[in-house]
Records
---
Amino acid sequence: MTDEIFSRDAYQDSTEAVVTGVTEDGIVLDRTVFYARGGGQPGDTGTISWDGGEARIADTVKQAGEVLHLPEPGAAAPPVGASVTARIDWGRRHTLMRTHTALHALSGIVYTDYGAKVTGGNMEPGVARMDFELDGISQEFGREVEQKLNAALRNDHPVHVSFVPRAEALSDPDLIRTKVSLIPESVDPIRVIDIEGLDKQADGGTHVRSTAEVGHVRVVKTESKGKANKRMRIELAEPEAGAGED
Ligand SMILES: [Zn+2]
């Protein structure tokens, strides 16, 4: 099994590793910083380099429990057993971490203030959508939520990653609400992302350390996707030069 460094430390952008498998589909390493696509978060891109070669990695997926690094078409592959350096495209990943954290904050606010659960969601770097069990939605609602969201993000809530024993997770009301029981029984402990005071859910993705790092978020569209299913689209503002670097 690949050691998934990103699940403990989302800020590590590279690692030394050993190639444990190469198939037609991709490259498997003994450890990696590449996040495998899942839970609405895209897989990481980057490079795997070794003595004498380098492969651009176009995507990362989970296949049969392994993290599979997918090289761009025509890229060379390292031999099994080779020592490599695996490096993600950090700018893209950090934007995804900000985007993912924004979605959790949004889901926490819409649940706490309006009692609506999330029915789905997806993200790309800097843009995302989330669907809610709401009967109605309007532009005014979007603006109201946008204000609440940005106020909450500015309050700089710490974001904690923990690994909770399954039995404990299954009896936590916050985690029950976000359907922790649907996680396969073999998963124990369960990884939990807790944005202190805002949102708590079982989640495999990568997030920033505290909400101020997300920056400003705009609600760019509200739309109906059917009865009791309303969609909000959000967009991250680009961070100002030098902002957040203290
Ligand atoms: Zn998530």
---
Amino acid sequence: MPGTPFDARTALAHLARGAREERLVHVRHLPRREAELVPWPTWVDPGVYAAWSGAGITHLWSHQAEVAALARAGRHTVCATGTASGKSLGFLLPVLTALAEGSHAPTGRGATALYLAPTKALAADQLARLEAMAVPGVRAAVYDGDTPPDERRWIRDHAHYVLSNPDLVHHGLLPGHRHWAPFLRALRFVVVDECHVYRGVFGSHVSAVLRRLLRVAARYGSRPTVLFASATVADPATLAGALIGQEVTAVTRDGSPREATTFALWEPPMLSEDTRRSAVSETSSLLADLVLQDVQTVAFARSRVGVEAVAAATRRDLADVNPALAPRIAAYRGGYLPEERRELERALRDRDLLGLAATTALELGIDIEGLDAVLIAGWPGTRASLWQQAGRAGRAGAESLAVLVASDDPLDTYLVHHPEAVFEAPVEASVFDPENPHVLTPHLAAAAAELPLTEADTEWFGPSVPALAEALVAGGVLRRRPAGWYWARPDRPSDHVELRGIGQTVRIVESRTGRVLGTVEEARADAAVHTGAVYLHQGQQYVVTELNLANAAAQVVAGDPGWSTQARSVSEFHILSTAREVWWGPGHLCFGSVEVTTQVTSFLRRLPTGEVIGEHPLDLPRRTLSTVAVWWTLPEDELALAGIGEAEIPGALHAAEHASIGLLPLIATCDRWDIGGVSTALHPDTGLPTVLVYDGHPGGAGFAEQGFRQAEVWLTATLEAVRACACAAGCPSCVQSPKCGNGNDPLSKPGAVGVLDHLLTGR
Ligand SMILES: [Zn+2]
Ligand SMILES: [Zn+2]
């Protein structure tokens, strides 16, 4: 009821009453934080100050002032503070001030700035906010794939502040940089917003694009200052620095205010020896309970299917107890018309709706200020997403409740039992490899087409430039001349490089409409979209009617056949070279180059209960992936000391492999689909029992390397997750994997504990 202060602790105590007490694993009270206010810097342009002070903003939060001062001094800066901490204002002050000052130049454009967002929607959003401030003398415009040709020309010639995305820089701005010459000549700032999303292969691509941009700008005489905004991640200075290959200063002390939150970590109960209640079912029960207490709540689930399930189960629960409440639950899956969204916002404001189940599409979709509680069904992948979702609860001046409900996954198991990994200094790093030759080589070709490549370009792209350029010469892509390497082909190199993957992709086509739903990398297509596969796209289920590799297309029809599918495959690997190694007593840990060969051989159909209702052979090619991996070995006699007999070795290693893949996202922002694993009781290259975890993209994406670097943290967490799981013989919360090519067989949970414990003892 409006006006009644919400008491989060009482609401939580009610949820955890009686037999449910043990499901409440941890409670953290995050106190209210006062804002740290500082005055506006005196150098800010009066027009800029007038715009913000007119909107009632006459002081800055400390981190905004810090970012502004560093940027004004020309230092590359990254601001990594919490959600809703006003990161934009920190970079807008120096940028808009420079643009306003530049507007007095004879050309009317003495300074320009380029803003890059990962999505078009975010760039449009930034423009709308900027236009609302109406800063005099600053002409801002969005320039993306949808901008009409006549407007493009006007923007290139006249705009001060251009809002765009890395794809446009790659496909448009850089290949046509001569049209952008006046803009580039005056380029003072480049803003890279939400830079933590540039990770893995995408991160390597965006890094190459930014370096190409800075290189071309330098040719026009400008050395812009690069300003990054990031969610809180481990070591943002290193992340941002790797994106441009230069030193970047981090601002991480958050001066924005925060209301108090009671944050609970919740683990669903075991239903039998090896089955845990799902996060979706448990979240439905909690949602019903909160609604019965008249607590207005939003419950986040990862997929549309999950959202529908939460809403339906909650309504069912309520129908038994208080039927009048059942209609006050709604599901929100994104993709709604504006009027539908406004109606939903109204229903929430008027408390006609008490419970809302939503996908994360809600983050951009509707305004839900003023809710009391948030339920999060399953770890959302990163701490940034967690705080973003938790932050959706809370009215000004009131505390809020957030509950993370663990899903059936080793990472979730670990996190609910290790609150320090959720609440204290982040350990997950946003990683990528800026030197992955599979990514860098085509970008060097593109760079050579923009401006001939020379030895001096190692300044931008690192020491591998000459070798990679010579390889391009051998391939007929570049030509070597005395002054450098030149583009040697008639077409445009940027047309050959897509920023969001490597190599060939397979299109996923809806048969009925011919609409392309998305793409999947060819190497992954065999397992994900083989003929007969049930494929989940943005939470919607599809059945693949045909995978045609020659046409690079998978035909799908929408629908839920009532079963899921799991591909079976055989994998083996060869070690090509060891780049780094460390000994933990008898244990040997390595990082290096490998070749992983995989063939998808059949698929299983499973009912929701897990029961297998058929295995169907597939005729698919053997595929070889050149990538990087982290691997470790322990001699057989050491395994015997750990109590693992010969017959148990394959299951022990396999279980340890699965769990460690599940825990890698703790230290590197990847998901388990970005990485793969192989374990073997005797590997020909090592001559020993070996467990290998590899990056699932050609050339690697930085995840395995981070695993090697943080091996102790990673494998200790893996051991603890398996040990903490209450199941008897292994379950999806510890050692079973949803993507196992061997149908999760053999697996030994006690063996995994023994082998990991023994390995870690030697360190
Ligand atoms: Zn388990
Ligand atoms: Zn497996």
